[in-house]
Write a structure and sequence with these properties.
Length: 636
């Protein structure tokens, strides 16, 4: 019987369109899923969407649609994105599906039967405007940090889960399974949190309608995290008549999550499972955050990177490679276009692309496109053995960035070997020279075959193209073949040689995409279709109140503004409005701001957004709401 590997991503909230941070979790899960398939395991890979709860109810209300309409819209976007990124999930679960709701009802039935649910009163901060409780972390000085509105202390009846009873059992589980939470630093954090004691957990709400009805008391809906976590088993059929997949694949081999949601997965989830008498996951891996200017990318801050343009221009494989290579798995990393482009040129266009196209075109030229007899000469065979071994160890230890380093080490040795043996010169030296060329290219081609297997989980599209160019078929493959030298078919024909990654002119690309110099042709090319409502909603327009304003020194037009957008900190904007408006007179005025625009520098001053103005022959006329509204109010 083959080994089984069940890997999951978190299910994504549908109150926002996906950004690089969301994509990262799914891309990494896909890389592991593909690697385990290549090892011959029976793999199940699950992703999906988290569609209930207050955030979604509120976002739908703000946009004037029903929650399910909002969910459908965002789900369509996720499907498109996963396809564009070559994500190979076996299933996509939505928490609004009946199969999921059956799973939730079943886990609650079991927890109730275990005597772990009791009725009590939930007390918290209530925001009347939203008719909802908000987390303590979102309240400061009696106000909601997001909207600035006052909150009040209220309570409502609620069902509770006896989490406190699981403290010792959880600690036993952690200690007996030191790999159940990774990386190690996160394991330690969770253990000390649980050692500090656990409070019983409220698992139902009456102040909210958009959720799974609480079994046996439909005045309540199930708390969104109990609802959401259950997706990992409801998707396998738990609670449904056909639970064969559950029997086969549960417990999960790896729940891959961002570090912000570790506690839910390492404390609540195992406690629910223990109470329900179900097996516990083998591992929860908490990866780090993508930061922008050292701040976590998140939609409420408005500093997110949307991946579409980069994927469209450079391809899914380049994006997947960058995400996996740039971030040390488990730690934080900063995203920038420059870093993306530099890696693209150095690692993809140069190290991989050039080594492959030089080898293949020399094989076409000097060997008439035929794969030569294998050769074991020079340092490449040993480098390949070492690379495969290191790669497998790193993949098995969940260190994908290090696995890539091992593969690139092999490329370096192949390239060095070609440089040293100079086939282009030896080809001019008669029959003996040609024999040498043949031996050199034989090892280089074989080294590329090994490389094509190692890169496959990361860049499935490029790996397939490389294999085709090497004259290999698209048949089933195993990572074990990478460890065997001399598997190319002698005499087979090398496919048409085409560059894998054409080099990018970084400066020209950045100029072309910079907001300072938009070229009309580029804007038109980027948006050939009429604007869809989904894309329109990607632009976050909000009302802000100007708190400070001053002219930018040495500039006639530019004014630096500090604007209250209802966020914890004021936003700095730089706007070219100084010829029509006196800076000081702008203080207190309300304006409309594009809040999720990529930050840019104008005369050396950073602008984190753009204000809207009607433009009459270059003279700006500011737009404002016709009566004062709270800062941060969305324009839609
Ligand atoms: N719905 C919950 C998860 C429920 S799982 C039972 C949720 N959704 S989310 O859409 O907010 O986030 C999903 C994942 O995206 C999380 O793993 C989160 O850590 C990840 N990321 C969101 N922003 C991120 C970055 N800036 N960087 C890396 N990943 C981050 O939480």
């Amino acid at each position: 019987m083959s080994e089984r590997f069940y890997i999951t991503t978190p299910i994504y909230y549908v109150n926002d369109m996906p950004h690089i941070g969301h994509i990262y979790t799914t891309v990494m899960a896909d890389i592991f899923a593909r690697y385990h398939r290549l090892r011959g395991a029976e793999v199940r890979f699950l992703t999906g969407t988290d569609e209930h709860g207050q955030k979604i109810e509120k976002a739908a209300r703000d946009q004037g649609v029903q929650p399910i309409e909002l969910a459908d819209r965002v789900v369509a976007r996720y499907h498109g994105l996963w396809q564009a990124l070559a994500i190979s999930h076996d299933d996509f679960i939505r928490t609004t599906e009946a199969r999921h709701q059956r799973g939730v009802a079943e886990i609650i039935r079991r927890i109730t039967a275990a005597g772990d649910i009791f009725k009590g009163e939930y007390e918290g901060w209530y925001l009347a405007a939203d008719e909802a409780f908000i987390p303590d972390s979102q309240v400061k000085d009696g106000r909601d940090l997001e909207s600035g509105r006052p909150v009040e202390r209220l309570s409502e009846p609620s069902y509770f889960f006896r989490l406190s009873a699981y403290q010792l059992r959880l600690l036993d589980w952690y200690r007996a399974n030191p790999d159940c939470i990774r990386p190690r630093s996160r394991f330690n954090e969770v253990v000390s949190f649980v050692e500090g004691g656990l409070r019983d957990l409220s698992i139902s709400r009456t102040s909210l309608r958009w959720g799974v009805p609480f079994p046996g008391d439909e005045a309540h809906v199930v708390y969104v995290w109990l609802d959401a976590l259950t997706n990992y088993i409801s998707a396998l059929g738990f609670g449904s008549p056909d639970a064969a997949a559950y029997e086969t694949f549960w417990p999960a081999s790896m729940h891959l999550v961002g570090k912000d949601i570790l506690r839910f997965h390492c404390v609540y989830w195992p406690a629910f499972l223990m109470s329900a008498g179900l097996p516990l996951p083998q591992q929860v891996f908490g990866h780090g955050w993508w930061l922008r200017d050292d701040v976590k990318m998140s939609k409420s801050i408005g500093n997110v990177v949307r991946p579409d343009a980069l994927i469209e221009r450079f391809g899914a494989d380049a994006m997947r490679f960058f995400l996996a290579r740039e971030m040390t798995f488990g730690q934080d990393a900063s995203f920038s276009d420059e870093a993306f482009l530099e890696r693209f040129n150095a690692d993809l266009a140069n190290a991989l692309g050039n080594t492959a196209s030089r080898t293949l075109s020399m094989a076409a030229r000097y060997l008439e496109g035929r794969v030569p007899e294998p050769s074991g000469e020079g340092p490449v065979p040993a480098a390949a053995t070492a690379a495969v071994e290191a790669y497998r160890q790193h993949m098995d230890a969940a260190e994908p960035n290090r696995a890539l380093e091992a593969a690139w080490q092999l490329l370096k040795v192949i390239d060095g070997h070609i440089q040293e043996r100079r086939p282009w010169a030896r080809a001019k030296e008669g029959a003996e020279g040609l024999r040498d060329v043949e031996a050199t290219l034989a090892v280089a081609l074989e080294g590329l075959r090994v490389t094509s297997l190692l890169i496959e989980p990361f860049m499935p599209g490029i790996a397939a193209r490389l294999r085709r160019q090497l004259g290999l078929g698209d048949g089933p493959r195993r990572i074990a073949e990478a460890a065997v030298w001399g598997r190319l078919q002698v005499g087979s024909t090398i496919g048409a040689v085409e560059p894998l990654f054409p080099r990018v002119d970084i400066k020209a690309y950045l100029e072309e995409t910079s907001m300072d110099a938009p070229k009309p042709e580029t804007a038109a090319a980027a948006q050939p279709e009429p604007l869809t409502i989904e894309r329109f909603f990607e632009t976050k327009l909000v009302v802000g109140t100007v708190r400070q304003a001053e002219p930018v020194p040495k500039s006639k037009k530019l004014v630096r503004l500090l604007v209250d957008l209802g966020e914890p900190e004021l936003r700095q904007l730089v706007a070219g409005i100084g010829e029509r408006y006196e800076a000081a007179a702008l203080v207190g005025r309300q304006i409309v701001v594009v809040a999720n625009l990529k930050p840019a520098k104008l005369m050396g001053v950073e602008s984190r957004g753009m204000l809207l103005a009607a433009n009459v022959d270059g003279a700006p006329f500011l737009l404002s709401p016709d009566a004062e509204v709270p800062p941060g109010t969305r324009v839609s």
